[in-house]
Amino acid sequence: RPPTLQMEHRSFLGQQNCRAKGGAPGFKVAILGAAGGIGQPLSMLMKMNPLVSLLHLYDVVNSPGVTADVSHMDTGAVVRGFLGQPQLENALTGMDLVIIPAGVPRKPGMTRDDLFKINAGIVTTLCEGVAKCCPNAIVNLISNPVNTTVPIAAEVFKKAGTYDPKRLLGVTTLDVVRANTFVAEVLGIDPREVNVPVVGGHAGITILPLLSQVKPSFSFTSEEISRLTDRIQNGGTEVVEAKAGAGSATLSMAFAAAKFADACMRGLSGDAGVIECAFVASEVTELPFFASKVRLGRSGLEEVCALGPLSEYERTGLEKAKKELAASIHKGVSFIRNS
Ligand code: NAI
């Protein structure tokens, strides 16, 4: 590639020494799949985050355009674009946080599992790059099916000898964002005041909202519980069908990913009590990976929180979720071990 494709843009506020606003050292963040439906708005939101000092935008297509566009925003982060596999290593070298929304999204009639073959290959290649170029970076994995791509990433890192479960997080924030919104509609309050823990995994019945633990606490009727659970589990399909062939959730997903990345950076900065839900290596159940509330800190994932008391409805849901999750996790592990 001609060197001009490896661009560097400095915004009006951008400083040569990559410092975040206020003089605190900022974080170096790479987005892999930055030109996609999620990648573009996510690139914009990360460019707006004052904790980011350097933003690397990588994709196999169109990253120069996205980079030029985002770089004109007069915020602090320096933006650089990287195009195609030969530039992956430069995109990753020195990064603190790598966010991966690369892959193909669901089309109507497709399940997340249909995406498996294509996205598994993409995630493998990108994680091999992470293991080689920034083995200490925190990875936020968005590419679906998350229930399988996270175990794949773990296997890739194990093979490379760089695996640290504290640094690999599957992004399930969109399930929480949706749950907060849908519950707020029922309660008639601002969604920012609502907190719904969503545990399990990130596909269909593995998405388990714990409505018995909603803050502010509320006694839902059993009809409300079953309707809300169903809507939260199928929120992705609601968007896929409404978009009618034009992809899956991108804007709400970018918002959710930016929220999660911000929480990771606040944890890395030493902020106390940063709690989010994520799909991580876990001992909360007998499964090796499980989504639940986690505490984020200086080393990434610092604590996986216990599930807390579950209702009868949630206990039944948990058993069903675990069955499906076990199969999805196994699929990811075998994909690498048998390859
Ligand atoms: P998209 O097709 O609009 O964008 C994907 C981008 O990845 C494209 O720009 C493509 O060029 C790029 N890409 C493909 N192969 C690549 C490679 N080897 N290296 C770098 N970039 C590569 O898809 P969209 O809508 O942005 O979705 C991306 C992924 O996120 C999909 O797997 C989708 O299922 C998943 N997703 C995850 C959610 C979650 O909650 N975790 C929610 C919504 C979507």
Strand content: 15-25%
Average pLDDT: 92
N-to-C span: 31 Å
How many DSSP H or I helices?
10
Can you give the helix content as a percent range? 40-55%
- The count of strands amounts to 12
Keywords: Glyoxylate bypass, NAD, Oxidoreductase, Peroxisome, Tricarboxylic acid cycle
EC number: 1.1.1.37
Protein name: Malate dehydrogenase
InterPro entries: L-lactate/malate_DH (IPR001557), Lactate/malate_DH_C (IPR022383), Lactate/malate_DH_N (IPR001236), Lactate_DH/Glyco_Ohase_4_C (IPR015955), Malate_DH_AS (IPR001252), Malate_DH_type1 (IPR010097), NAD(P)-bd_dom_sf (IPR036291)
Labels describing this entry:
binds 1,4-dihydronicotinamide adenine dinucleotide, single chain, NAD, tricarboxylic acid cycle, 10 helices, three-stranded antiparallel beta sheet, alpha/beta
Q: Would you give an account of this structure?
A:
With 339 residues, this protein is of the alpha/beta class. Helices cover 40% and strands 18% of the residues. The protein contains ten helices and twelve strands. β5, α4 and β6 form a beta-alpha-beta unit. The chain is globular and about 55 Å long. The structure holds 1,4-dihydronicotinamide adenine dinucleotide. Residues 32-33, 35-39, 59-61, 101-106, 115, 119, 122, 125-126, 142-144, 146, 171, 174, 202, 247-250, 253 line the site of 1,4-dihydronicotinamide adenine dinucleotide.
Please sum up the structure shown.
With 339 residues, the chain is an alpha/beta fold. It contains 10 helices and 12 strands.
